[in-house]
Each structure stands twice: as C-alpha cells, then as structure tokens.
Design goal:
alpha+beta, OB fold (Dihydrolipoamide Acetyltransferase, E2P), Trna Endonuclease, Chain: A, domain 1, seven-stranded mixed β-sheet, 6 helices, about 15% helix, about 45% strand
C-alpha cells in the first residue's frame, strides 16, 4: 500500500547553507561558489536553516528563472534529512489516495470560502482531505512533531470549513504529512498559532478524522512509511496491523522471508489496517497482496503489541485453512510452503516464536513486548 508512494528528485547536488535572504530565497555554497537559491517552503524553518547546515538542491533547467536551484532538504544532526519541499506532501497524498479506488479525485476543491486540497467521490459518498506538511520536531518530546511552525490563520479557517462540511454530509479528514524521520505523531503548536489547537480539537469532535503519514526521508527523496490515526482527546497514538498464518490442513503453513530495513527474517504475511477496513478484511487483503492467495474465514487467535516511541503498535493475529490461488512472491519477500516443524527451526523474525505459540492456541492469546522482554498472557 505504501511502498510505491514516493517523491524522488532528479539532478540533485549538495550544498552548505549560509543565510536566508527572505521567505523565498537563501544563500548557499554550491560546488565552491555562493548561489542564491529558491527555498521551496515559506515557513520559518529557523531550527533547520542554520549557518553551515548541509543541504540538498535540485538543478532547475528554466532559463527565465532568477535562481538555478531549489532547496529541497536539510540535514539535521541527530535526526537525519528533513524534506522542506512544501509541494511534496500533496504529491505524496495524491499518490496515496489513488490506491483506495476512488471514483474521482479532484485536487484544489472549493468548499465554502476555502480551497481544500482534495475532493473525492466513491459509491456516491463525498470526501474532503486537507493536507499539512510537518517539518518541526518537538525538542522536548522525541518522536513528536509540531504544527504549525509559523502563524497560519488559513490553517484555522480550513479546520472550521472541514467541521462544517461534516454537517453537510462529507467525510472529512486532515492529514499531516511528516517530512522527517522518526516522528510518529503531530501535536498542535499553540505558540505559533493561537487558536489552532482549539480549532483542531473542535474539528475532530465534529467528526473530522485526523491522521499522520509518517515518512522515510533521504537527501533526494521522501516516501510514505505508515499511517497513524490521531485522537487529541486520548493522546496515545495507535497503529493497527495484522498477520495471518495460512495452513493447508496437513501440517504445512505459508512462510514469508521478509525483506526490510527495520524488520526481516522468516515471518507470516501481514501489514497495516487501512481506513474503513475491518481487521479481518485487512488480513485478507494483505495475504492476497503478499502471497497471491485469497483466504476466507480468518479466525482471530490473539494479539502481539509493543510501543515504538510514543506510538502503540497493535498486531491482530489470524489463522486460516481456507484459501484459493497459487503462491507468488511480492516486494515484501519470498513466500513458500513449509512444515510447522521446519518453520520453527528457521531463523525467525523477532517475536515470531511467540506469535507461533498464539497461532497454534498453546494457551496464550496475547504477547506484549516491553523493555526487551516478551510477556505472554
């Protein structure tokens, strides 16, 4: 669902930031000489655009332009690359929305007295999504971003419009695209814009869904990693996932040799629960995407959950003996049939020995990973 949602920049070059001239331009050392470059973000970015910061620029082949480069990302020690391209969030969300099968996706839709970033239609229902890019990390709370980083009366107005649109029958959402690594949630920054927090809480209370798209950022690209549902009235942020053990009823199960930077090894197919999905439907979809098999009647066997920073990750564990189709590999890794005994002897991904116990109904239905220890219940 997320692996292809990416903005990649061509013709990039490294530079060293010197000073910001105004909202739109800055002085940067590029290939040994000072250049005036275009800053693709009118926010303050005071914690990022500091003297001698390492930056990435994109060459622009437009002879009539006054600047030959766009400043697209900044390296922040301890955090890594931060994408500051204000156009990137909408580009990512446009790609992301296309995966949900909407009948219509229309950017820049006029509602009331505002232009909302996206209007969608599906099965006669109407949807509105407003997008906000987040580039400010909370210095006191690791893993938390803050929005806005500068005054935005327009942002407050958008929230009021979305809350009103819910009453008009629209399904409305606000989507924070986090343009930094390691940030899993966004909180309102009342110091930058008084009234924004109150407007955000009122919008959510009215029925506006507030989500974050967490991203992976490199010098020349930004891609979506996962989605987090926010609840301002209950500050814990939760990511729902699933995993399914498919069995042929003769002692063999489907194994996935997972390929990934953060999680790899022998595991079961599974992934994230998407907006509007039931947990069981999400399991059916993930199995089909990762193995080519279509399962039915998945049985919930238990949960495996853990915290990553401030985010509670909850995985629902399913089992199914009913399927059609033929195994085929996916970008997630190689899939194959294997006996349970041989599976248990493989080099399993982290936590899979406990997952296997839950899947087999060996007296446990929950595993909680905390402080390096897996607790079974």
């Amino acid at each position: 669902m997320y692996e292809d949602v990416e903005v990649r920049y061509e013709n990039t070059v490294s530079g060293v930031f010197l000073r910001r001239l105004n909202r739109f331009t800055a002085q940067v050392v590029v290939e040994g000489r000072e250049e005036t470059v275009h800053v693709k973000n009118t926010g303050r970015l005071g914690e990022l655009l500091v003297s001698q910061a390492q930056v990435t620029l994109q060459r622009v082949n437009q002879p009539d332009r006054k600047t030959a480069y766009d400043l697209i990302s900044v390296y922040r020690p301890g955090s890594g690359w931060v994408n500051i391209d204000s156009l990137a969030p909408n580009a990512l969300v446009h790609q992301w929305l296309q995966a949900f099968g909407y009948d219509l996706i229309r950017p820049e839709y006029t509602y009331g007295e505002s232009r909302i970033d996206f209007y969608m239609e599906q099965h006669g229902e109407k949807f509105l999504t407003e997008v906000k890019g987040c580039t400010l990390a909370d210095p006191q709370h690791p893993g938390i971003g803050l929005f806005p980083d500068a005054p935005t009366e327009r942002g407050v107005k958008h929230l009021h419009e979305l809350a009103h649109a819910v009453k008009d029958g629209y399904h409305c959402s606000l989507l924070f695209v986090i343009q930094m690594n390691g940030i899993r949630s966004v909180l309102p920054n009342g110091a930058a814009q008084p009234g924004f927090q109150e407007a955000l809480e009122a919008a959510q209370a009215a029925g506006v869904q507030v989500n974050c798209l967490c991203c992976r950022v490199a010098a020349d690209r930004i891609s979506v990693d996962t989605r987090v549902i926010m609840d301002l009235h209950h500050p814990e942020q939760v990511i729902f996932m699933n995993m399914c053990m498919v069995s042929d009823g003769q002692g063999n199960i489907v194994a996935l040799d997972k390929v990934g930077r953060n999680y790899s090894g022998i595991t079961f197919p599974g992934g994230h629960v998407e907006p509007g999905e039931s947990f069981a439907d999400a399991a059916v979809r993930e199995v089909q995407e990762e193995t080519g098999l279509t399962i039915r009647d998945p049985r919930l066997m238990g949960i495996y959950h853990w915290y990553r920073g401030a985010v509670h990750n909850v995985g629902y564990l399913y089992r199914s003996e009913h399927f059609t189709g033929t195994l085929k590999d996916s970008e997630e890794g190689h899939v194959f049939w294997i006996s349970q005994e041989a599976y248990a002897a493989k080099k399993l991904a982290r936590g899979m020995d406990k997952v296997l116990q839950i899947m087999n109904g060996e007296g446990f239905s929950e595993c909680y990973f905390q402080d390096g220890v897996e607790k079974m219940y």
